[in-house]
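Fold this complex.
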Amino acid sequence: MATATAASLPGASVAAAAAVSSSSSSPALSFRILAECSKSKARTSLMKLPHYAVELPMFMPVGTQGTLKGLLPEQVKGAKAQVILGNTYHLGTRPGKDLFQDFGGLHKFMQWDRALLTDSGGFQMVSLLDLAEITEEGVKFRSPYDGSECMLTPEESIEIQNAIGADIMMQLDDVVDVREKDYERFKTAAYRTTRWLDRCIKANKNPDRQNLFPIIQGGLFPDLRKISLEQQIARDAPGYAIGGLSGGEAKEKFWPTVHLCTDHLPKNKPRYCMGVGFAVDLVVCCALGVDMFDCVFPTRTARFGCALVDNGQINLKARDFANDFRPIDEKCGCSTCRNYSRAYLHTIVTKETVACHLLSLHNVAYQMRLMQSIRDSIKKDCFAEFVEDFMAAYYKDQEYPQWVVDALAAVKITLKK
Amino acid sequence: MKFAIEYISKGGGRIGRLTGLQSQPGAVHETPMVLVSTVGGSAPHLTQDVLHLVVDKDAPLHVPAQHFCDHVQVLQNYKKGVAHFSALQGHSVCVSVQDAAKATPQGYNHKKGVSLWTYGGRQIITADKYMDLMEAMQPDWYEALNDADPGIGSSKKRILNSTTSSMEYLKQCITLHKASQKLKGSALFAPLLGGRSEKARNGWSKSLMSTTVDKSAISGYTIVGLHTNGPEVEDLQPVNVSNIVKASLQEPLAAELPRQTAGMWNPLTVLQLAHLGVDIFDSTFPFLVTERRGALTFPFRLNRRQNDGAYSKGSCLEHQNKKLKVSEDSPKAKAEEEVPRQDNKIRESEDEELSSPYEINMKNKSNVSLMKPLLEGCECYTCKNFTRAYVHHLTIANELLAPVLLMMHNLHHWMDFFSSIREAIKTDRLEDLQTLITTSVFESNEVQSLILDSHGTNCV
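Structure:
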């Protein structure tokens, strides 16, 4: 008689299945759920990447050109950032992939020793360049430097991303402006994105230390999203991204699409919703089961003199702050709030670069603190209460936007009246 | 404030000790020393924590009144002075009238007051307003309000008007200073002016020592009126300023009080001013070099003499005397580096880079793949962590981190330069330092035009 193995025991298969569905392992990424919300789809997990063990859910500040808006790497670490995002289009253009190959990657170049994620370059090109044309081969465009015709193919995008050396790379996807009305265009994009994914996977020279995430497309059409989900999941990647959103679409259409994607995406792998960064959106998407986010908003708004606070943002240019000797946020432990007053910031905002650095630092710290609160509340299984309190503080007089109410209701969270 | 002269070098220059500052009672600052220049109360581009990676937490700051005359109300409400307001408590503060980094428009001062150009526009400051501002800023020391307008080529009449107004302001400031409770712990410096006329400057200094001025209220001097601030000051060479500064500093002016100057003085002119006995300088030069994306590379380490004992090979051997082998990292490097400057003028190269012989310009394409630091052997944060390629990338990408990293390096370099100046004076080798920089940075045939007879009288 064969020795009973653990797998053949009745209880063991349930345990094994449970173990499988809450963790996963790829050569360059291991993922493990630490706790789940008993009401919504929120969960908190640990994602081990080559350069850093990342606590999820988390927000990635955007360091487009290999730098985070005037901040030293140690300041960014001090604000508790775990992963930052670099843009392949910008970095591939300048300083270019050859330099990264010589220097051994972006981590060394910019002296960032935690994790990096690079996007594919596709979105930047379509949004920044005139005459960018998508063909089956890739994205055809005119170089902004000499007007010559260039092509960004999935292979080329991966080659640049391999040189940059980020822990996570994004596939080149066929991204359509979400406000486009033509269903057929989205259909083409959904299928083409999968074909391009296959080309990206093949082109990846470093699967042992660089993860490649597929991106789910399909616009706001549930049937197309399902097709994309099915195809992309079949490629068994270390993690997945929800793309094609945060492009100005109505929130009423945004959240059901996210909800659909997280219902279908494997539970035991990280889910990344690209381009989401406003506090309310982050909280809702966490409730819907998203783990990773990125957005230029916190660093961009700092340049205009705006600091993030619990119920939105304050613009330090306003005269109200001229004699306000409090820090931006008394609860915030960032170095800006520990040392500088609103009144001082008011005198230099939009005038001296130091103001920009101080606000960027605070805004990044704010986002990190928000995500930490989310993680902590999930661990203690009081995420639902956290969401209720957060929304009540954010929306005075409890005038919640309908989409927020609906999205949270869909995952069994009811807001206070 | 207390100032004591410790040593007068026969080779030029003097060493002093500055103590008794109200915000740092225990601090001792050795002179010649350099103040950290600021904009809007902060070191340019550097938040407080980043500044503290470069300088000590008690490094004295230079704050122009010009930057705060729009904010006198909030400072009065704040009650703790400008250093604290700018999150730099612990640093002592010296206040001057004008911002040395920005050219002061000429012709706007008259009997009513001195014009200060703020972000909000032009403000006309009387002695009363100025002293209100001083009380609100709570400096450790400050210069009296003055009309130092006459720059190059001012008429005799203009100079006379400016000295007349300035004497009036000085007397008003002295009266108000003595009557003020809030300024009890602050020290008042009198300006030394007279445009570029040796006669006018000497006359002014004489009048400061006469009985019409209450000398007991004056703790030091600021040398003004040699220029009207801004980047053009860089072009002034030792030969342009030596005689007029001597005219201000010579007898009968009290030699035992500290002398201060501000402006984008280039390193050789700084050395000449130190030679003449100036004690306190600012950091406009490294700041404006940063603004044009330059990184300071000029050498300033004198190797120890053989008969001093241990011969120390400095950490930047390539910056030693030109007779030693020049490494590829020296300012006069070869092929792969940028074209070395041929003269002392700021020259725009084909790429339209403003630069000087004291620096390398980070916009220059030769930097694009250089894995080495801005300056080999430099121990600053930027050089220990980043490459020229990265700083170049940040520069042409117009990223805000470029001026941050450059300011850190340039300020560090400037501070080290002053350490070297003090060391040179103590060992009677200030002239060797002048020679080192001159010969490393310029072609030999230009040297004569820059340095005047260094055996001439100095005013220590």
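Chain A touches chain B at residues 65-72, 75, 90, 94-95, 99, 102-103, 109-111, 322-323, 325, 335-336, 339-341, 343-344, 347-348, 351-354, 356-358, 361 (CB under 8 Å).
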